[in-house]
Specification:
Elements: H1 6-20, E1 29-34, H2 37-42, H3 44-58, E2 63-68, E3 79-84, E4 90-92, H4 97-109, E5 118-121
Parallel strand pairs: 1-2
Antiparallel strand pairs: 1-3, 3-4, 4-5
Helix pairs in contact: 3-4
């Protein structure tokens, strides 16, 4: 088997990223609730339940909700990342059910970042 080059890895990453990209006419937002062991211990399940309840109550159909493992910032859990079309992702920290409901209403529905819960805006890259 041939060895992968850096260029091969970049291509794989870009292909995967393109597959998951939010597109016009499809979903306008993706919310990832970080549910590693540390997140669950800190209350991520309640955050997820509140988020899903808020989406159902609002009857919103164009938002994807996913989960991920640990984001590496255990002391900041529970955490969630909000990705909107054509905007940099925003990582929110130290969440509870009230904060995620506010983030959903303010950021996802109205496009205003909730500054008091936001840790960082932007995305990481390995190259």
């Amino acid at each position: 088997m041939a060895r992968l080059t850096i260029e091969d890895l970049k291509k794989i990453k870009e292909d995967y990223k393109a597959m998951l990209t939010l597109r016009e006419g499809g979903y306008r937002a993706k919310i990832t609730v970080h549910m590693g062991t540390c997140g669950i211990a800190a209350g991520a399940r309640k955050v997820m339940e509140a988020l899903l309840d808020e989406i159902n109550t609002s009857n919103v159909k164009d938002v994807i909700v996913t989960t991920s493992g640990c984001a590496g910032l255990c002391s900041k859990e529970p955490m969630a990342t909000v990705e909107m079309i054509n905007e940099a992702p925003v990582k929110y920290v130290q969440l509870n059910d009230e904060k995620i409901r506010k983030i959903f209403k303010e950021h996802v529905l109205n496009g205003r970042i909730v500054q008091d819960s936001a840790l960082v805006m932007g995305s990481e890259t390995a190259y």
